Structure formats: structure tokens, C-alpha cells
Amino acid sequence: MRNTECVVIKIKSPTKNKQQWLTSMADLFLQSIEIGLVKSKSAKTSSRTKLHPIVYPEAKSIGLPSDYCRMAVNSVVSMLRSYEQLKKVQHNTSFPKINKKRKWFGLGTNAYAIENKNGNFILRATTQKCRKFIWLPLCVPDKFKSKISNGGDAKIIQRGQDWYVILPVKTEQTPTACSGEPTFIGVDLGIVRIAVVSTPTKTIFFNGQSIRNRREHFTDLRKRYQKHNRLDRVRQQKGKESRWMTDINHKLSKQIVAIATQSSNPMICLERLDGIRYRIKKSKRFNRMLSSWAFRQLLSMIEYKAMKANVKVKMVDPRRTSRKCSKCGHDENSNRKNQSTFKCKKCGYETNADRNASKNISAVGASLYQQGLSDTARSRPQGLEQTVAL
Ligand SMILES: [Zn+2]
To answer: Does residue 307 sit in the same domain as residue 335?
Structure first.
């Protein structure tokens, strides 16, 4: 059985010309996706067979090389699919948008090759011009050297000033994989406690109190500036707050991945973002907290850092994870006594509510894994949720 995994490899500091090429490719690619999304809206379809003949020529006409057009169409289709699935859970889900500041592009299997010159790996990508290539030397860590092979769709992304390639690596897997069953690490994200991480042996709490205080301080300041019509200060304040949050997310995601790497063959189980919104009470204050708290950023940082550390990530549907007993499986709304305490009505198990939730999240991840569902499976909730009538 073949199983596809990915590794993130840094591109060795590209020259000015190469940086320009990477940037222009990302711009063309994202522009093509944008065109695709508009077309799908007007044609009212998300079908690949219908979208391909409409989007492909448009992408080509703005200058995206044909080897890259297929990937642009694929990206449009997968964005539409997850949008449609999300909409079933949350009706006010907005139509997918492209964030042009986050630069990336898809690298189809025909668009590149990896060459190994005496242990130095170079990515050769096709360009706009026929039979003209661009050569991008890679920084491949020793542990990945034997895994790098050719073939499979890849992706190039920019993080900060650096560029990375996300490469699929093929690993042969026998039914009795030598690495054995993964260790499932459940991560519960929230407002009161920013994150609760549970491993089979321990639970780690990341308290959100100081973060909440600081955020309230920011909000107060902003209100004061607004009152005095100091819009320049308001803008300044916003920038400051967002840099501060990014910094916190960096630290938090780093720590979560570090905890995971202490276990053998770890797999981080994360709740999907739509689930967090679904789960957290819809009070005005919470909504404000949630919309401005960069959960999406935190999730993507965890995913990205996990990938870099060769740690697998599974996204799970967190519905019912805060109500269900992680000991006996009894599922009842009144199991959750209050914000912080969980007490099972059936077996009497009493514990911190977030610990209970994070354990359930890792259990959902484990059950998804055993059923062999893909990480991004957005099918009806499986495992823990099976007993729930929707
Ligand atoms: Zn119980």
C-alpha cells in the first residue's frame, strides 16, 4: 500500500530574478483562482468537468503556463468543495476569497522535477517559455534526503521573506507499519484557555487570561482614540495588536508541536475552525473575541510547523466533544456543569471541561485514522459523532 506524505523544504535564498519569478507565478496563480471562483459563481457550478474548459483558457490567457493551469483549476474546485461542506454546518459561511498577501502556487507533477547532484537537491520548474527552466536549489535536511522522489503534485509557498516547497514523499506502507499506531495528541482551542493539549500521559493547559486582559486593554485604548478622532492612532494600535497576536500564535504553535514531538509517531488532532465557531456560545462578546482572535492563523501555523517537524495533523469535527464523557462515552448536554467543569451524569467522571474536550478530540482523530479517512475529509462526522442525530 502506498501512502502519500508531505515534507516542507526551504528554497535556498533565491536570487533577485528567481524571487521575481516566484512572486509573479504566485500572482498569476492566485489571479487565476480568483477568475475561477468568479466563473463558478456565474455558471453556478463547482464541477471540475464544467469548470475546466471555462477556467483553463482564461488562466492561460493571463500568462499562467499551461503546466500550472490544471493546478489552478484543481485549487478552485477544492476551495468550492470545502465551502459547500462548510455551508451545511454554518449557513452564513462566506464564499471563498483569495488573500493575495499570502503568496503560493501549485506545482503540478508535470511542472517540476527534482534533481539530485551529489546530495545537492535542485528543483527544476517549467516556466512561461517552452523548454526554459528555472533552477531552485533546496535545503534538504538529512532526514528527508532518502525520502525525496519525483512525482506528485507539489506546492510552493512564501512565509515571511522565505520560499518553501511542499513536496509529496512516497512511503511504502505495509499493513503492519513498523512505526506502529500513532500517538494521538488532542488540541482543544478556546477563549478561556487558549489551548489545552492532551497526550496519553498528560494534559497541558495554556491559560488565556493574560491574553484576554491585554486584548481588553487594546480595545479600551482604541475606543479612547476613536472618541478623540485619532484615526492615525487607531490604525497604529490595530497594527500593534495584530503583530502581538501573530507573535503569540508563533510561540503557541511552536510549543504545541514541541509537546507532540515528545511522543513517538505523533499525530496532532485539531478541531476544524467552523467547529470552533459552532461550539462556542454566540454571545456578542465571544463573537468579537473570536473574530479578532486569529484562530485561523493559529491553526495554519500549527499545521505548517507540524509538517516541518514531520508530525502528522488530522482535522476533526469537534461537535459534541465538549458534552461527551471521554471515559464512558455518555453524551448528554448537562454533563458539562459549567464553563470549566465536566461531570458525567452516567459514570460520575469529573474533570476539567477542556481536558475532557481535548481527550475527545484525540479520540475522534484516532477513530478517523482507523477508518482511513483523509485529514481533510469533510464528510458527516464519524466516530464520536456517530450516535448523534443531526
Ligand atoms: Zn462517563
So the answer is: yes
What are 339's three cell numbers?
Answer: 464553563
Residue 137 pLDDT: 95
Question: How far does the centroid of ligand 1 lie from the alpha carbon of residue 327, in Å?
Answer: 5
Report how far ligand 1's centroid is from the alpha carbon of 203 (Å).
Answer: 19
Pick the last residue of a domain from 174, 201, 217.
Answer: 174
Q: Mind listing the pLDDT tens digit for each residue in 189-239?
A: 877 778 899 998 888 888 877 887 888 888 889 889 999 999 899 888 888
**Ligand 1 center to 245 CA (angstroms):** 37
Q: Do 151 and 197 fall into the same domain?
A: no
Report how far apart, in Å, the C-alpha atoms of 131 and of each of 29, 124, 125, 280 are. Answer: 20, 11, 10, 54
My answer on whether 11 and 85 are in the same domain is: yes
pLDDT at 258: 93
Give the per-residue pLDDT at 281. 54
CA of 330 to the centre of ligand 1 (A): 5
How many other C-beta atoms can be found within 10 angstroms of the C-beta atom of residue 124? Answer: 13
Per DSSP, the three-state class of 125 is strand
Among 174, 198, 226, give the residue marking a domain's end.
174
Is residue 229 located within the same domain as residue 368? Answer: yes
Tell me the residue range of the domain where 38 lies: 1-174
> How many structural domains comprise the chain?
2
Q: State the distance from the centre of ligand 1 to the C-alpha of 326, rounded, in angstroms.
A: 7
* Distance of CA 359 from the midpoint of ligand 1 (Å): 13
C-alpha of residue 324 to centroid of ligand 1, in Å: 8
Ordered mean pLDDT values, 10 residues apiece, the chain (390 residues): 67 94 95 95 90 93 91 90 74 82 90 89 86 90 82 88 86 47 88 84 84 84 90 88 88 93 91 62 56 73 88 84 88 83 91 91 86 46 23
- Looking at the structure, tell me whether residues 199 and 345 fall in a common domain: yes
In the chain, which residue ranges form alpha helices assigned H by DSSP?
A: 16-43, 48-61, 66-89, 142-145, 209-227, 231-261, 273-279, 284-292, 295-308, 353-370
Can you list the alpha helix ranges (DSSP code H) found in 228-294? 231-261, 273-279, 284-292
Question: pTM of whole model > 0.85?
Answer: no
Domain CATH for 214: 3.30.420
